[in-house]
Amino acid sequence: MENRRPLIAGNWKMFKTCPEAVETARQLAQLVNISTVDVMIAPQFTALVPVSDVIKRGCVSLGAQNLFWESEGAYTGEISPAMLVSAGCRYVIIGHSERRQYFGENDDSVNKKIKAAIRDNLIPILCVGESEKERESKETFNVLDRQITKGLEGFSSNELDTLVIAYEPVWAIGTGKTATKEQAQEVHRFLRSMVEKIFGNILAMSVRILYGGSVKPDNIKELMEMPDVDGALVGGASLDAETFSKIINF
Ligand code: PEP
Hints:
binds phosphoenolpyruvate, alpha/beta, 41% helix, TIM Barrel
């Protein structure tokens, strides 16, 4: 890994009520005191403000799991980038495979969401990854090529200077199956080369590429040893403060 600062991000998905999220965040804030790694947790929307209050003096940052691209308006049920910023968010996860699978998100909506995040100075975490069927039919690189090319269409490299990419093979999310460190490295290298091809060497060298898919305390170290793995996006294992802190302190 060049000089890229590792990022360990927790996606709490649709788990934890407000009090539960606050309690886990409180425990995490007590367990985590690290200056060499960036740490982020993304609780559900209603827990953002109370969790923000609990973590604001520590080294854990807040993220959201989604946003809508408009600034405001008659969009019942949606949330704007400025609303997330005012709730204390620094990061936002965009295009998670569960959003693509269950909520009709596609490369076009992902592109608009990244634009909106950047407009309001949120750090976008763009999720990409192939399904099991796509991997088996040797479509992995085509799928990732499309997700990156379309997801990042129309940006200049300057605009993307905070961008984080998360490689999350769909077959490894919540399944207990982890990509081997070699599989992760192969894809991360490919993603970095795509960023280089489209945006040039400077962004390619600085963009952080996280691995996500059944990351646990016992596999994080070997993944982090790979030169193009710059951190992890963690689902299930981020829900428990002690387990997540072990991943953070890999
Ligand atoms: C995720 O939801 O982004 C994820 C990687 O989940 P898990 O760690 O549970 O596989």
